[in-house]
Amino acid sequence: MNFELKPLSLVEAASEKCDVLLVLVADGYKPAKDGFSAFVARAIKDGDALTKPGKLLALYKHAMAQATRVVLVGVGDGSAKSVRTGVMAAMASVKSDTLKKLVVAFASAATAPSVRAGVSAVADASYIFTTTKSKPEARALHDVLLAVSNAGEVQATFDRAVAVVAGVELAKEWANRPANYATPALLAKAAQGLATKHSKVSCEILGPKEVAKLGMGAFMAVAQGSEEPLRFIVLQYHGAAKSQAPTVLVGKGITFDSGGISIKPAAEMDEMKYDMSGAASVLGVFKALGELKPTINVVGLIPATENMPDGLAVKPGDVVTSMSGQTIEILNTDAEGRLVLCDALPYAERFKPQAVVDIATLTGACVVALGAVRSGLFSPDEALSKALSAAGDAAQDLCWPMPLDEEYGEGLKTSFADMANVAGRSGGA
Ligand code: MN
Ligand code: ZN
Predict the structure, then answer these.
(1) Catalytic annotation, pick one of 6, 100, 189, 264
(2) pLDDT by residue (tens digit) across 344-354?
(3) Which of 175, 178, 276, 314 is deepest in the core (most CB within 10 A)?
(4) So what's the pLDDT on residue 95?
(5) Is the Cβ–Cβ distance between 413 and 386 less than 8 Å?
């Protein structure tokens, strides 16, 4: 899918030949002097087109437009949230095989948040997973033109939004793949592919031998019940001077989480293929970095393995030693995410990072606390926590700060190791 940004007034956008023209109309719309703008203003005045986010007025072969279909789309106050609501509603109403070229026209001046939200909503609404279909019906939408009167002001935001879409689509692809199409070895191959494609990205893959040498006993314990060999993926993006401390991203890469010996119930166990979404996010970030080439340094660490029950699988009560030298009593083998991530953290230290961010589908308890609306955000660093929250707001991928009081650690005390890998049910996140 190709995105293009053009400096066009509304009437100029209406003269673009396309399958669908979306006209994003915000509150307080002030029409220009041309006929098409006057018509939009009239539809609002008569109450047939509403600027409320998600309200639509669809027209077929309108005399004043070159598009086959025109949809007036309410985007309210023009905020990221309102634009996303409007564009998602409009895209659902026009979804078809005949939509190949789309023009999205901002009736009023565009802002950075509205452009970002517009680009990501078009991509999200038209996304289709095809990898495991024998006769895939791929996304028909091929060209997306953003028509914005003040294009110069939002060009940088637009470029970044398009790179982010490329990253998000790669993350979705790997997250959606079933476990037999996304093994640890295949994830490693995808990471190596990013390094081959993008000159500033490099990739190193560690296997079971190297991981054993490093003493990653917690990570190895999770992997020992699976026939698929583990991989520890190290991605690096070098965009700035070597002296500049990198940000390290750690992505949980459990390519299938059966729960291990503490096996999960059968219902919805298929969804446990998504337990590598943190890893997929890290791959997506590197894709976006490769396309955008910002002047920063980033390291991506992905501990990738299946969590399976087997004769060799780790058992409840087993004690393992992590890379940091601490011992852990594994009381529940389904709490494996923390076991693979805790071994990535001492490894991250060698990069002397300015920040480390774990991205993980970590606990069902967090979903119980926050639902599917926000992700839990745990950080002892208030500045970093605020920055991540703000980034989530900007991307409409919301998170919420969670507490880290010492007292929560009480439940992890055990007589048999330095700590247990689970505490009680309450406060489980
Ligand atoms: Mn688990
Ligand atoms: Zn898990």
Answers:
(1) 264
(2) 999 999 999 99
(3) 276
(4) 86
(5) no
Between CA 363 and CA 379 the distance in angstroms is 16
If one counts every other C-beta atom within 10 angstroms of the C-beta of residue 392, the result is 16
Task: Please list, residue by residue across 405-417, b when 16 or more beta carbons sit within 10 angstroms of its beta carbon and e when fewer do.
Answer: eeeeeebbebeeb
* Two tokens, residue 310: 């087997």
Q: What is the C-alpha separation between 400 and 387, in angstroms, rounded?
A: 12
Has 116 been annotated as catalytic? no
- Residue 305 φ/ψ region, left for φ over 0, alpha for ψ in the -120 to 50 degree band, beta for the rest: beta
Torsion of CA 79, 85, 89, 91, to 10 degrees: 60
| End-to-end CA gap in the chain | 39
Q: How far apart are CA 123 and CA 176, in angstroms?
A: 16
Q: Cβ neighbours of residue 203 under 8 Å, at least 6 residues apart?
A: 191, 192, 194, 195, 233, 234, 235, 236
Helix/strand/coil percentages in the chain, nearest 5: 40, 20, 40
Q: Of 327, 349, 347, give the one whose Cα is nearest residue 221.
A: 327
Q: pLDDT at residue 382 above 90?
A: yes
The H or E element that residue 173 is part of is helix 151-176
Q: Closest ligand to 252 CA?
A: 2
